[in-house]
Amino acid sequence: MPYREMFDPELISLEMDATSKEAAFELAACTLLKKGLVKESYLSGLVTREESFPTGLITQYLNIALPHTDSEHIIRPFVMIVRLKEEVTFEQMGDNQAMKTKDLFFLGIKDGKKQAGLLALFMDLFMRENFVKEYISADNPAKIYQLFETNA
After folding, report:
1. Which domains does the chain have, with CATH numbers?
2. Among 78, 110, 104, which Cα is nearest to 26's?
């Protein structure tokens, strides 16, 4: 499955009201479960994985987080894009440095072999100044969907 097929305008939330990463995880898990994309075990798998392998990413233009879990918790592949109303704290991949972000990309990876490629795609996109400017200025799900559809 090409990465662009993992994006869905119905999985874009630009005003999620969560005061912590855990609250954001719960809200996202609820949405994904209702849409039949994840199993009941998804939330606990997400939390456990984040504790062991943080998913924050500090980039030159925008800090993001790429929460994901093991494929056993995923029914169908997806990318859920969430922009929080307020920043929350994550730890950065690799060095566990605390960082703040409002931009979360929940990755539902069914084939573990594709995980590195999808992570690399996000790292590449968010190192491009023009892409980040367009992403930040996009004020509705359709614009964000189109941005990823064009660039993924």
Report:
1. 3-151 (3.40.930.10)
2. 104
Distance CA 82, CA 24 (A): 9
- pTM metric for this prediction: 0.94
The tens place of each residue's pLDDT in the chain, 152 residues long, gives: 578 889 999 999 999 999 999 999 999 999 999 999 999 999 999 999 999 999 999 999 999 999 999 999 999 999 999 999 999 999 999 999 999 999 999 999 987 777 778 888 999 999 999 999 999 999 999 999 999 999 98
| Amino acid in the structure at residue 2 | P
Residue 74 DSSP label: B
3-class secondary structure, 3? helix
The helix/strand/coil state of 28 is: helix
